[in-house]
């Protein structure tokens, strides 16, 4: 049984890896103010960024779907890893050697399955690179040279060669501790009558990396005529590799995609290489599948759904390339970015274009792009006979919905006018009205279906608003799975309006207690749980108390509070409050903290005054004199204390 990772090593890993560095491997982050960063949530679809990262707290939180946690939680969630696998990956990245309570310093046999598969792929990639220098690989080196790639280019992209023998890689990885079962599960080997054999043999090898840079699969190019396999053979679907969720070159391109707000989608591995070497360093490619929804999600997180961002598709000018372009246009509305197409001249792909005309031609190909909707319109019109009224009408009915789907209203109108000209319809306003009608119907259908699903995060409050949406007592925090599907969370118990003024100051005080505990200590620790009238906030107050209180805050304070939370719902609320900036234009100070402390205490005093007055009324004139005097005295004390709080502020606490 796998040994437990030493607690001190876990703490060291958490401290060694900044959360913003980890998250930025998966999505673009921008300044959100107050020391926080923001980006598009990777766990649900949204139009405006509601995902926030607090580097100083080491926490992230999405105000749209309520996913939150620390660095370890983020990796576990986004890459579907176990806790141990996550710690092992982060430890490897930060150079920390882990100790296992039951196994000393030899974690090899105790690592999680995914970690061992990743290590096997990493070793395989290095093995293939080394084999590219062998005499047998001359055919592979010749293939690269004929396409304009020298040794430096091969090294940059990690291109390698798989020997033609049956089990060269299998024997190599066995020697490094991999089991036959792991080799088959990873897709690096396949079963045979006796022992596993190499899946890739006698081929040029491209390592396929995920967005974090880990090798998760391979693409293998046929080199010899006696190879009866397909031209390209990819890793099969495995626990690491899902072709619909990987983009070749994304690890190299992600920073430039985020920086330039442009992604260039090409069709093959050599096309990615050619583009990058020509200076188009935002090029990426799918791996044996068409460009789809999961690929779009990856790019949207990098492009931040900036309306000025661009996605440029490059396709061959042949019929297959045109068909692929039209298929890509079907997903246009899933982007906030503008989509373009760059058709290579003479049916050449970017690799062939670079070889024939040089780096400048590849750059020009991308710069001279055409908007994808315009290309789609021309392709539709070309299928109809515009010399007849019937042909023009049919072309209009097929092309008008395309124009109606254009996101930018001014471009939509201009394109409608342009469409009338292309069709030869003299009544331009008729075409404009038809397009407007279709666009209106589409909007109405969208509202009827719940509106733009990408904007769900905008409806939740969060930073800059009045707090989160209305929750219900006992309602669990929504997680990415149900939220991404738009599944409503059924209410449980009476509604709890967290936007009321009383709840708002409770929220603000808890944010200060978590983010700036020194500003509210020691007064905060004297506040009772019952002074927080919203049950979720009362639960957070109790978690702070169970963690030792705000006065005892140190480097592990937030971690202790999160651990003290009784369930995931309260833990999510702690994370949310620890990340959401206080509602003050300046950095919070003692004066601001004092105002929140007084507001919460005064609300509690006023609430108790109301209760005592009700008790007096119920006692009536015939009550026991001693009891009546005690209640009257409590009321007087409360009223005096309340007046003192109003007059003297925090000094009266």
Automatic annotation (TrEMBL):
Region described as Disordered: 443-498
Domain (Toprim) ranges: 261-345
Cofactor dependence: Zn(2+)
CDD domains: TOPRIM_DnaG_primases
CHC2-type zinc finger span: 41-65
A Pfam family annotated for this UniProt entry: Zn_ribbon_DnaG
Assigned protein family: Belongs to the DnaG primase family.
General function of this protein: RNA polymerase that catalyzes the synthesis of short RNA molecules used as primers for DNA polymerase during DNA replication.
Annotated domain remarks: Contains an N-terminal zinc-binding domain, a central core domain that contains the primase activity, and a C-terminal DnaB-binding domain.
Protein name as it appears in the record: DNA primase
Gene of this entry: dnaG
